[in-house]
Amino acid sequence: MPEPDVVQEVFNDHAAIVAHLQAAGELSYSTTLESTFPKVMLLSSASNLEEQIKRAVLDFVRRTAGDSDELVSFMRNKAIERQYHTFFQWDGKNANQFFGLFGENFKQRMKDRVDADPDLRQSVRDFLDLGNARNTLVHGDYAAAATDKSARDVLSQYHSACAFVRWLDASFGADTIETPP
Question: Which InterPro entries does the entry mention (predicted)?
Answer without folding.
Answer: HEPN_RiboL-PSP (IPR041519)
